[in-house]
Please model this.
Amino acid sequence: MKARTIITLLVTGIVIGAVAAYFLINQGTAESAHLPSAAEGTFGAVTEQLDPGGDLYLYWNTSGLVTFAEKVMDGIQSTLENQPADGTTREKNLKWFHLVRRMVGETGLYRAKAMGVSSRSLEDGLHRTRMVLYRDPGNTTDLIWNLHASSPHDMPELDFLPRETVLAQFGDFKPRAFWDWLQAQAEKSDIQEFKKSVSMLEPLLKTRGIDILPILDGFSGSAGLVVTMDKERRIAIPMGKKSMEIPAPALALVLGVQDYRLFDLLAANLPGDKGDKAAAVRRIQLPAPPSPLFSSPAITCNGSYMIFASSGELADYLMSGKGGLRESSEFRNLARGIPARGNGFRFISPRLGEVIRGIQKTALDNPELKEKDRKTMKTFMNLLPLDLSMYGVLEHDATGFRYTLNHRLGIHHMVILPAVMAAGIAAAVAIPTMVKKMEMNRRAATLARMRSLSMQIAAHIAAHGSPPQSIEAVQDGWGNPIIYRRGTDTVDYSLASGGADGRFEGWEQRGAYNGNDPANNSLDLILMNGKLVYGPAK
Model:
């Protein structure tokens, strides 16, 4: 690994590692026990935004963490200055270290002066949590404080989300701010390799027909993800020999834009039906992949929003602006007391958790699942809260960030929320993957047994001049008997399996299919004279 890669990883890791180390090293010291007074500014500025008297109330002055992180970086620099290397290598490594250290500093992380968290119970099992990240008021060119608008604003995306929405997350999106910050970092750098690489990005993209600056300027400042589940339409998820029906999911990536520039660039380079180029709502109907999740993928744009959707129906509904979610009792209940204006929001419907738990339960009930895998799945399931529903709004202004969240998670879940969400969702994703792998293993085992039988039949033909009249019963990977047919010619024979459902559709089938698609689990397998004539493509 190159030295500059190691340096980058070391310095970046400081931001995370210093938090844990700071608490461990300073636990019980006078500095960590010091409670700031309102006169210091940050204590009052943070705590006035929190709810007292609840299950959780935390204030943390982060200045000690910043000091500690700087000391650690000084230690790394001293190590690099004294490394056993020639002068040129040492100087080069130090230059990369200074670059990464400056870039970390100019992200704006060190401007954070204090943090605060509170959580209290409301009625009906609802909890309200507030989180505050405070910085010194004033303008700054640092990265994280410029990726959002300077103050809370209306969030019109809430108005076009359908009632079927089970997950939505939107926020301010200013890619030009990141581009300008990166260019500024390159200009300040005395590492020619880094400076040249960054400066070459724009001309390189132009050689490929991409004028990046107008495209970046064409974003209006918002981006988000929408996932819906249509209870009127259902799709089957294969679960071994059985399947489970769930509401048909659809997803969309939504970008706020000011023109059709990015859409026109994609239209010129992507396959599919482009529709009317002069229409107010322009559309690219993309070829559908072999997956029920992408029934009719499309890209649409009306000059204000561009939508990448797995379903053309969802794209059209979002473009229509009909909405529905905001008026639902489900949303209104979660949105009580949450700011109406902000710089981003997150919504999770209780229906999402219900579907995830249904998938998990069906998979656990599979009698073919190994006990070890069943125990692992149960462990993941126990980490996932029963009700994932939540609605929260992020606000940003000259003093930092505030996040107000209504949810039904217990305080213990809130403390480990990132790990809980990751583990629980990973379990929901992993279960269908494990089932898919089991089906692929069954198919592979079936083909192996059929080929072994073919070798035995070929040996019989070599010894007796013709195939056997019958063969000993052998089961395929799904527990069904492998079918044998003796041909009319003295050396012809065929073997077949009916797949996961055990229903054989006939000897005339020919060709190859996608063995990775769960929808094809029940398709047959046919070998003729030892050769696969119908089965999964290699």
